[in-house]
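Structure, all two chains, one model.
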Amino acid sequence: MAKKKHDANDPSLKSWIESANTKDTEFPIQNLAMCCFFRPGDDPAEGALPTCGVRIGESVIDLWELVSARLFDDLDGVPYENADIGEVLGLGAPNLSLFAQNPKALRVAFRNRLSEVLRHDTAALRDNPYLRAAAVFDADQVDFAPPTAMLNYTDFYASIHHATTVGTMFRPDNPLLPNYKWVPIGYHGRPSSIVVSGEAIRRPIGQQAPADGETTPGFGPCKLLDYELEVGCYIAEGNELGTPISIKEARERIFGLCLVNDWSARDIQKWEYQPLGPFLSKSFATTVSPYIVTAEALDPFRCAAFKRAKGDPAPLPYLSDSQDQKSGGFDITLDVYLETEQMRKAGKKPHRISSGRGFKDMYWTFAQMIAHHTVNGCNFHAGDLIASGTVSGPGPTQRGCLLESTWDGPGKPRKAVELPGGEKRTFLQDGDTVILRGFCEREGFKRIGFGECRGTVMPAGV
Amino acid sequence: MAKKKHDANDPSLKSWIESANTKDTEFPIQNLAMCCFFRPGDDPAEGALPTCGVRIGESVIDLWELVSARLFDDLDGVPYENADIGEVLGLGAPNLSLFAQNPKALRVAFRNRLSEVLRHDTAALRDNPYLRAAAVFDADQVDFAPPTAMLNYTDFYASIHHATTVGTMFRPDNPLLPNYKWVPIGYHGRPSSIVVSGEAIRRPIGQQAPADGETTPGFGPCKLLDYELEVGCYIAEGNELGTPISIKEARERIFGLCLVNDWSARDIQKWEYQPLGPFLSKSFATTVSPYIVTAEALDPFRCAAFKRAKGDPAPLPYLSDSQDQKSGGFDITLDVYLETEQMRKAGKKPHRISSGRGFKDMYWTFAQMIAHHTVNGCNFHAGDLIASGTVSGPGPTQRGCLLESTWDGPGKPRKAVELPGGEKRTFLQDGDTVILRGFCEREGFKRIGFGECRGTVMPAGV
């Protein structure tokens, strides 16, 4: 008996979780964003570990409970015979790194089954109040944890608009360095200081570039604190040290995407970054959104890679793939909101300070970044994070950091961002909350979102 | 009854393990270098995990077996009452990161007890053939594993001789950048590609700087493969994100030291490193020696911090500590040996290509590096690795990498290193084995060594 193949991206799908069916939800049944959270009552301070989950509507669901209830038995794509599905899936772990290591076929089969379980007409969980009580929670009643182990974190510099604007500040006649259009420029970031959305950000202290004409550096709380709007990519299957991932294979190694705020201390950065790159100006905190929007959920929102200008070099063969050129991009609308303490006290809503679809215009695709990252044999572990670098669109309202958006041209004073209530910002002040948001929409598909990537700046010191 | 306090560094101590009492051993009972190894017959390919050990003479000892045999009950310094000593020490883990997290007093008490257990006149293990059979193995019969989890890895640039020589190559009139004497320059390295001594190193492939006058980069196997002689420092207790480690506290956060070969692809590095620092030129492999020579074993070999020249700025207050200035350095003799395939076939011994005590002359101490690294609130996990950067002494025979040791001045061709049998090297060739060694000696103390940090270059490709 041939069963009609279930399409988890079918826009007509509805869930028995009613909040997933509203017009404005970021988490319809077509999203099934994965996450890790602490079950209500579980206290990490007492040693409790998070559990793997899925966000749907206003709910989060403990996936291990569903696996234990045998809702995922007989999945297609299991690479071992007679294996215990719970062990294979790895969803009993306190993060999604083990799950990420599964081959794509199994991750897809899992997603399809999960979609079926949550579909409006499937009774298994819907009509089982005991299982629902054990597995389904209000998303605003739980604390989230970083979704994978993120043993390694790499930050790229893939937005040509960002690189050009920032380059112009330092080299007005020659903003892009000669390697930019050949090399997906990146650097190793700090895994230890990655935090999940909602955690407070302590303003860093450090050495700062000497004032003009001076030789002695400043020291103290950062005065030029900035956010950076980025998109992160979680790696699925890792690779062995010494074994590159080809550009063709790279596409399937994308587990899913998230939002990243790569907080940056510009005055510390300016002084420290020569000759070995940014260090303490970044490693005080990096915030990730709690959710992994899977590559499968994003499939409908794929778009062509950035179209190079006439005269730009073609990517070297190890970075070239026709499928990647056709659909290696993602069309994501990214918004940045700022909420100051004064606004909060006045009951004002966060103010959107930039918005755009600049992620379509990244000079390099994630597949290119993965192929480049491993061409030297460097190994990924499943769940590793690579981030795109600041995402800026071509226009001045689409810039992904204050360093850029307050830039008004060589020699001119910075042009402050204006906020409701008469406040202005050139850089972040204590009490400011930065909120990144992202969503994908396309005619004929259900709109999906990334959730929030939020952090509030706390004063320096303890 | 007052017991005479046992001094684990007493040079007159002897062990019942006879190979620890020879004149030339690097691992006398005064060293007690810690490590992780696979017990004979345990196959990592079948999922076996390494065990925590100590190296003494020609033996390695499984510390978990000793803990299980209750040889460490009633230690001083245990921070919890009625705690199970095995759980507290954390030596049942597959690496030493849990052990490293213990407060210094407990690590010292453990070391003293271990020294007593191995002392010539202590019968507990010596006269227990069952326990000896379970716990004591020939060091050359086991495979070693990385000694800690090394969740985070940072590489510094602390040798002023190295920075000056390399700077001279690019900026003959102005070799040191203005920040060098203020900032302990460092960057985040790649944890995933750290391997333990003995693992083969695959020559990396990548983009290389265009030839002079060209604009198109090269691509292929690295042509300028180099080693970098470094000293690594394992962090003991970690710190919470947002909570700096002061220079005074930093000294006690040094768990121990090791040797590091930070393999470097110079042609890849030259092309990629602007503006965000070295990336794929380093992340194909970093080799660590198997042993952690503890801070306690190194205490007798402490020396003054580098004496700054007249006119050099004083370290900023957060990097200043009188005790650190007096004894924040380590006097280690470091040797680099090279063995080519031709030499191996001809039965020739590895040839020493550099030797020196340049580690005394590092511009920054490890305590300064730790205080700097955390001043912005960046957090360490116990067992994290920071490396010194290439260690070069003042003289031409004490240079820590080929980039430096074959440098003969601006505009001149590189001066090849000459090897027995008539071979020459400006950079490494396939089949070359690089061996780093280090030892400490001082009148009135027993000489101790670091063991080997060894790697052989394999051809590019799989």
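Chain B touches chain A through 63 residues (CB under 8 Å).
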